[in-house]
User: Fold this.
Amino acid sequence: MVLLDIHLPKIDGLELLRQLRSDDRTRRMPVVVLTSSSEESDIIRSYDFGANSFVRKPVDFERFVSAAAQLGLYWLVLNEQSPR
Assistant:
């Protein structure tokens, strides 16, 4: 699972997502966009580029850690992976 912020310092996160989806080795990897953005256009573009989920990053550190742990639990334990 990849937790991806769309506001990265050297590459646009959505461009990185597009690259992940274009590579056969990573195209099925779960990608959760975890960002502070609340722009509707960022949400739409994230899903258009193949994000599995879009989560607004909590500002409070404790809430951030809790959210990351819950996302990890969901994707690694509860989610059924594609057999391919």
